[in-house]
Amino acid sequence: MNVLEQDRELAEKIWGCGCIYLDRARVAWVAGQFDEAERWMTEFQRCKRDLDELIRKKERHDELMRIVETIRERDIDIAIVLRKGNE
Q1: Percent helix, strand, coil in the chain (nearest 5)?
Q2: Is residue 1 domain-resident?
Q3: Rounded mean pLDDT of the chain?
Q4: Is residue 77 a part of any domain in this protein?
Q5: CB 55 within 8 A of CB 1
Q6: Could you list the residue range(s) of the whole structural domain that residue 21 is in?
Q7: Residue 2: which of 63, 45, 44 has the closest Cα?
Q8: Distance CA 19, CA 63 (A)
């Protein structure tokens, strides 16, 4: 999973829960318990949203790291940029 290292354990737990919820939704669907299947799908969608957020967090982090690297390659003093941004 493309998440930050400190988020990996949480992401794996969320992923595992999502798998369980999908399985429970499938079992309920096959049994004709459509409301129950829908309930488990709602739980799965919550897990999916949480995972998507962790992935977006990593993407934002990676983009910031690319910007910092570009600034360094151009020999721009980041401290000056930060001070100017806080004025």
Answers
A1: 85, 0, 15
A2: no
A3: 93
A4: yes
A5: yes
A6: 7-85
A7: 63
A8: 30
